Amino acid sequence: MDSKSSSLKPEPEAVGAHCAPVREPPAWRLNYRIGAGACGMVFLENVHIPGMKSPELWAVKRIPRALPNFTLKRYQAEINNLQLLARHEWFVKFNSTYEDTHYMYIAMEYIPMGDMSQSFTDSYQWNESDTRVVIKQLLNGLVVMHKEGITHRDLKPENIFLYLPQNQTNVLRVKIGDFGTSKRIPPSNASTYLKTTTGTQSYMAPEAHDTSKPKTNRVDIWSLGCVLYRMLAGNLLFNDPVEVWKYALTASSLPALDNIGLSIPCVSFLYEVLQPIPEDRPSAEDCLEKAWIMGEVPELEYSIGKDLYTRLAKISHRAPNVHSFLDIVASQPVESSSVL
Questions:
Q1: Considering the entire predicted model, what is its pTM?
Q2: Which of 12, 48, 72, 181 lies 20 to 30 A from 221 at CA?
């Protein structure tokens, strides 16, 4: 590594067992790709470093330095946000970061099941009870984020990761990931607003499409509503900004809800979080007090139905584990595009 790139590295700041920036080039092979996005590719890597009792699988995001609009400042902001949230259970854990001449790397916890979108195959629709288990955990995460002054700005199924804890049958846990578009404005800074238009079209709030208007963390609440609808209906609520604009003009009802068979508290919750005017949407804390979120608490916390549990377990079992990974890599061409 040349001296120029070395000088760009952030100072080490340990936040957990392995959360300091890596000074020496890590022994990553980066030859098993598990994902790709606007900001780079994600590789699965077998890691065994001093301090580890046994090898672990990490997900390593590789970001090209030449990527348009992805500056060093933005990269360091993502690292800072991951570190701020590292001690909380609602977020994908950050392990380490590294830079070289051509790329910036972020190593994170690997979640075998992958993101929520994996559950939508075969037009699967979640039932209300199972959906509430996820939404409640997402709200807990949003409460933490928003108290830290962090707005995700791209909450969607592809950035929501699911896992089944070992030795807990029918229990589903949730983690929020990918903070590449997140923005932190300290709560004490009342004069600064979110200005940039960013996100994924089908999950973007009405104000996010208007470059002249400031944005607040209520954009995440709108996205949450769009995620909830996607889970329940099996399809997107809004396909483009025009549909969002048309809804924002009336906002008297959501016709798309008529044929899903939802309970009155669920419909009410959706209507409240999908208010076109951001000030009319409840905060994440307020959402946790809504009747639909508080109703029908399962005997075992975060428990889901057998049908969904069986479906997710099959997805998880197909994913590489630390024991099978080396054999899988040996049989794959370099940078295979295997999808978990």
A1: 0.86
A2: 72
